[in-house]
Amino acid sequence: MSPRTPTGAAVLQPAITRAIAEAVLAELAEHGYARLSMEAVAKRAGVGKSALYRRWPSKQEMATSVISEATAAQSPPTADTGSLRDDLRATVNALMAWLAHPLFSRILPDLVAEMARNPELGDVVDAVVCGPRRELAATMFQRAIERGELRADIDLEITLDLFAAAIHWRLTVRAAQAEPGYVDKLIDTILRGIGA
């Protein structure tokens, strides 16, 4: 016999959670973080505000939780091909797809700007979005060190900044396309720069 849900306990229905998450992302893409409101999300999702508050105590926790989960869904685990060049290619392609995603390409620039105005939000986004992606990339470079493809004394922090910054700058800041061959040229430049 399965345990009975206690009387009065909220049962979080996955379909409602999905509808709310989709509404959060749509509101962020259309209006930005500063104008995001629990009321607008509830209205778009077709639920009462209480459905949101049962899941998250605040707008910030709602937004960062939804962004974190959506980012994880868009980010396959870092490739482990046995070759740093091939791992980088797969990782760069995944990062480019994430930055070019129809919703994230509109959400991320606004979120970065808001993080500059709201350090607390910046800390949370760094912990739930940037940090996990960075850890995956660090693992990729650690494997390359263990295979002897990279020197053990490379500056890992600068290396991590190097490959992500180039893609972010091109796709998000410049809004430029990655022409054919761009990824291979970028990888060649990165590998030369870090002494691979």
Task: Write up this protein.
The protein has 196 residues and is mainly alpha-helical. It has 2 domains: 45 residues, Arc Repressor Mutant, subunit A (Orthogonal Bundle); 119 residues, Tetracycline Repressor, domain 2 (Orthogonal Bundle). 69% of the residues lie in helices and 0% in strands. It contains 9 helices and no strands. The longest helix has 28 residues. The chain is elongated and about 55 Å long.
Give a brief description.
This protein is mainly alpha-helical and 196 residues long.
Question: Which structural traits does this protein have?
Answer:
196 residues; mainly alpha; Arc Repressor Mutant, subunit A; Tetracycline Repressor, domain 2; 2 domains; 9 helices
Alpha-beta classification: mainly alpha
How would a textbook summarize the main sheet?
none
Percent of residues in helices comes to: 55-70%
Query: Ends: how far apart?
Result: 60 Å
The total count of strands amounts to 0
Order of helices and strands: HHHHHHHHH
For the record, the CATH class of the largest domain is: Mainly Alpha
Pfam families: TetR_C_11 (PF16859), TetR_N (PF00440)
GO molecular function: DNA-binding transcription factor activity; transcription cis-regulatory region binding
Keywords: DNA-binding, Transcription, Transcription regulation
InterPro entries: Homeodomain-like_sf, HTH-type_TetR-like_transc_reg, HTH_TetR, Tet_transcr_reg_TetR-rel_C_sf, TetR_C
